[in-house]
Amino acid sequence: MNSSSFKFAIFLVVVLLATPASAQFELMWGENNPAGMNNIHGVTVNPENGDIFIVHYGDRNIRHFDDEMEHIETFNLGIGEVRGLGFDTRENRLIVANGGSFAIVDLEGEVLRTIRGAGGGINSMSYDPEEELYIVGYWNRQVAFYNGEGEQVDDFNVNVNITGICYYPINRSIFIMDTNDPVLEYSMDGEQIGTPLEGDQINGNGQDLGYDSMQRILYATGQMAWLGAFEDNYGPLPEPEFDPEGFEVAIGLGLDDEATLTIANVGEEESVLRFRLEDVGDDPDWLAIDPTTGEVAEGDDPEEITLSISTDELEPNIYNRTIVAHTNNPEFNEVEIPFELTVIAGYGELLGTVTDAATGQPVEGAVVSIPRFDFERVTDEEGN
Question: Which domain, by its residues, includes 376?
Answer without folding.
Answer: 350-384
